[in-house]
Amino acid sequence: MENKKKTRFRLFYDALPPKAEVAPKTAFVKKIAALCKVHEVTVRCWIAGTQKPDALKTSIISKELGIPEQELFT
């Protein structure tokens, strides 16, 4: 990301271990996509900061990760 401040959502993703039988980051993307009923590419766009989820999806993610809604994508 070009000197762009990372969101809490991205920082949570970045903190996941890089290797496992199913990579933890891949498992995270799949889990969030399933919870929010969106495509994995959409979750990756949220991680990259090119899109933001709507209020309902933000609420779902907040509850799952234990990060306040207002901090997830700021």
Structure write-up:
- The chain has 74 residues and is an all-alpha fold.
- It has helices at 8-14, 24-36, 40-48, 55-65, 69-72.
- α2 packs across α3 (40-48).
- The two termini are 15 Å apart.
Which SSEs are present, and which pair or pack?
Elements: H1 8-14, H2 24-36, H3 40-48, H4 55-65, H5 69-72
Helix pairs in contact: 2-3
State the gist of this model:
With 74 residues, the chain is an all-alpha fold. The chain is built from five helices and no strands.
> Which structural class should the secondary elements be placed in?
mainly alpha
Radius of gyration: 12 Å
Question: What sort of overall outline do the alpha carbons produce when their principal axes are compared?
Answer: globular
Determine the mean pLDDT: 91
| Sheet with most strands | none
Number of helices: 5
Strand content bin: under 5%
Oligomer: single chain
Helix share, percent: 55-70%
Total strand segments? 0
Q: What is the element string, with H for helices and E for strands?
A: HHHHH
Roughly how many Å apart are the termini? 15 Å
Unreliable spans are none
Short descriptors:
74 residues, mainly alpha, 59% helix
